[in-house]
Amino acid sequence: MTTTLIANLSRYVPELIAVVTMIGALFLEAAVGKFDKAKDYIFSAAGIGLILCLISLSKNMSLSATPIFTGAVIIDPFSTMVKIIMVLGVLGSLYVAFVSKDIAENHKSEFVILAMGVLVGGMLLASANNFLTVYLGIETLSILSYVLAALKRNDGKSTEAGIKYALYGGITSGVMLFGMAHLYGILGTIHFSEVLESLSTLDQTKMLILLPSFVLVFVGLGYKIACVPFHMWSPDVYEGSPIPVTTFFAIVPKIAGIAVIVRITHIFFDKSGVLQDSWVGFLQVVAILTITLGNILAIGQKSVKRMLAYSSISHAGFMLIGVLVIDQIGISAICFYGVIYLFMTLGAFGITSFLGDQFNSDRFGIFDGLIKSHPFMSIAMIIIMFSLGGIPPFGGFIAKYNILSASLHKGFYTLAIIAALNSVISLYYYLRIVQSMVFKDATYEENIKGFTFINQLVMLGICFPILFLGFFWEKIMITATNAHLLVK
After folding, report:
1. pTM
2. Lowest-confidence region among 65-79, 250-264, 339-353
3. 123: which residues sit within 8 A by CB, 6+ positions away?
4. Which of 204, 393, 404, 430 could be stapled to 385 by a disulfide with Cβ–Cβ 3.0 to 4.6 Å?
């Protein structure tokens, strides 16, 4: 038994590193919290831990897929690649938090500790192989996220964001748990492989009766990725939370939620029949509503954070298209999309954060005339906006092309057309920022303090993969293609 435990832990090293980093940051905060350099120590320690986590994850990519801890957790190339995206998202969010003024200096250490805790939950969720592990991952990720949303304790909007997030999260978690309990009551197991075996013994009518239980489970997961109709919390929470927290929410919980939806879909709805047809039909409706409403509601926004919140809702809809394809092509398209989405989100929120710190606002007007005073940052933002809108030759175009190609491969022509039309609609609000930077006169003359040489270099570095992967995307696509999902 000891040998088995050690063998299991040897495949769980990245998660253990994340846990140790979180605990280490907690003790470090307690030990050096009163010193002037405490924040630097804690951020440095977290950065080192995350880099070690990345190294360990990169080694796992070449290992064979294996279920561990009596099958409760599964380590395969797909979950490993998803974790790499999440770890990179945390690294980027920590950098934004380190240089941002939107979080008080004495609260930044708390952000590090909480963000690492959410990462642990997200990594557990990406590898979940039974419903209990899914629930533990969701709750670990969610409860700490509620605190992050209200990190600006003296700000009414931030407090409101935390309360709304907690209320919506508590309700959807309860609904999801009810669906899981119903599945367990009927099938007598929570392990995915055993549930699959039980489903294979049921006739089509009985399987169709179980579909509402899976829909109830989806409620909790759909809430994490902010898809319609579980998206209502997202704009308010994104606007009320500090920008580093918003950046973090747009990446880690969303990618983790997509990962577990992919796994559940591929395990339980892989075989053709009434269950698959019903589930795919349900996901098509959700994907169409998510993409369309996300884009339409983003058009009239005056807050950049709210606009990016609705934008992230739309992007969740695009990733759901890859989910309902239910084959390796769809998984590859989702993984590639996740990589590009990571850099686009970090860049958009990062530049917005620097301007928000300067003007204490997140309105579109903060971008007015920016190209005249800070051309490099303006060019970076233009690349990001064009990529988010899916304009070639940037990485966002390739990401959307792969998703649409996967859907056409499965014959979802109407869905592909609607998604493509929505990409055109999205250009309206993305190009509003470009218009403000290029064609409007600046309403201010002061220099942007956040645009230091290092920060500009980092933002340009974030834009490099967006531009590079628009031309040379084959290698990363091969890696995404090799990100197989183990169904066991």
Report:
1. 0.94
2. 65-79
3. 14, 15, 18, 83, 86, 256
4. 430
